[in-house]
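Open question from group meeting: does this chain pack into something compact, or does most of it stay loose? Before anyone orders reagents, we agreed to write out a predicted structure and look at it together. Recording both the input and the output here so the notebook holds the full record.
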Amino acid sequence: AYSEGKNIYISNWTNQLGSMSVYDMSGRKLIELEIPALVERVIPVNLDRGAYVIQLHAGEQQFNTKCIIR
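Structure tokens returned:
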């Protein structure tokens, strides 16, 4: 997962339904979406400029990363 401008780019290359959550730096969940299996998605976001944490889940796998919205 990464961000560019006001978009978040994610991939779910597992065979399982996944989810994406976006949190601000104080831990508030701002976005939660289901992500189908075997896809790449561009997700436009209406977030203020700043740093956010993206959390991805698919089956037993979990991935966390930070992103900057500009």
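Observations to bring back to the group:
The beta strands are 2-4, 7-12, 18-24, 29-35, 39-44, 50-58, 61-69.
The longest strand covers residues 50-58.
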